[in-house]
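Task: sequence in, structure out. Protein: L-glutamyl-[BtrI acyl-carrier protein] decarboxylase.
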Amino acid sequence: MTAPQYIYDGNIVGKKIAELRNTLPEFGILYSIKANPYAPLVAYIASQNVGADAAAKKEVLIAEAAGVPAENIYYSGPGKTAADLEETFDKCIIIADSFHELELLDSIASSRRIKKSVGIRINPSFFGTPGKFGIDEELCTRDAFSRYPHLVIAGIHVHVKSQELDWQKIYQYYENVFALAEKIQNELGEKLSFINFGSGIGVPYTADDKPVDLAKLSTACGLLVRKYQSKIPAKLLIESGRFIVCEAGTYTTKVLDIKKSRGKTYLIVAGGLNGFARPAVAALLEEDHVATEPLFTKHHAWTITLDGKSDEMEMVDIVGNLCTASDILAKDFLLPKAEIGDRITITNAGSYACTLSFQQFGGQQAPEETLILPEGSSH
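Result:
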């Protein structure tokens, strides 16, 4: 098999869902489809009673096809068009990202002669920065929302950071969101029915990364929920981000050629930049480049291994077969001496991997995807 392949382990996915559920039992879990929209994987996650966070109309439809009920699909994301909202109006809970989207939703609800419950995404003041996502907190007033008589603001959605490993920062963020929810609820004069806290819980990519202390986070959040539950009896939601799927995925590709050039050895493989773009992007960036999620998290954020049998080691550049010098998976990387036909495997390929790659560029064969289901699973 020449085509590169993504392999997803359903056992790990199930384990991560259980881990998250045990850590935060007071919260419902939404799977962020943008992390990996592979349909069989989404269907398996849905079978575990996990809802969906959809950032686009297509992701709403993917979640619907996977069997997620409409009341457990939350459609956020900026720039929704009237056509997007019309098509998804009855298929999910829509989170308005702007006043313009509220205008569009109000018009649709008016034309259908109904009152529609929606959520709003808020850009919170506790960070105080401008941003493309949501409505600034200070603009979220009863007067502002009264302009949309056919809508009921039923919940809020906040999301400001991904890939956080410090449990105390995650807890502080949750505490801030609860305080914001109380403020919005008081402003509206109505109880909120849901609070979407967004994502944030990260995964360790390197040996230097310490995983989130889930035990401490669980204890602290349990106390926090009890503090607020009488004042805000809302459904509490978190988005899983990469937490569920990142470590469940591996990427494997074949060595097509080996070239020596002026003292450097190149392993040419199928599917570099156009197969798994994140290592290729990292190889092009300076060592001090800051995280730019989800395209770049950090350098050396995966383990690369070779299935060859040689005991001899050599320093190589692993490059793809596209006609561009930027098609690099790893530079000056120590591996067992390879032979043509050997396979290279890269870890942490379950999230923001296949769909971030430039598969249309260069006319090469696209990666294949496979889900290995847990034994006895019907999905």
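The radius of gyration is 23 Å.
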